[in-house]
Amino acid sequence: xxxxxxxxxxxxxxxxxxxxxxxxxxxxxxxxxxxxxxxxxxxxxxxxxxxxxxxxxxxxxxxxxxxxxxxxxxxxxxxxxxxxxxxxxxxxxxxxxxxxxxxxxxxxxxxxxxxxxxxxxxxxxxxxxxxxxxxxxxxxxxxxxxxxxxxxxxxxxxxxxxxxxxxxxx
Length: 170
Known about the structure:
By secondary structure, this protein is mainly alpha-helical.
């Protein structure tokens, strides 16, 4: 894709604030990602759990439309027919039993042996959304000793919202 990945725009190599980032741009990108996930989870001929949603796996085309990409560890969803198991990846998949995703974006239930699911993708999207708003990676050195990106945001909200929002958006 001509405009590279979302990561390239959130974290330019020169270390400066994100290029082209403003609230309207972020809302548009987030909307495109949601549309992609909605298609994968609900409308694709074979439903898919992405398992590795993060800024480097979101590509931007000529018009800066976001496209969910890199399905290297994606899993196909088996339609079970009942709501208790709907949306869970087929445990017969060749990557079953392995931790699915990238550090900082993996849903907590995956670490406890949970199967990849559409809910895990939604969790990863939430982390990515916080990352877009704060300008901080979930693996930032700031987040040590059990502190996570969403825990950090929770500590600052609602009394210090300006600490949460990326300087480039202010």
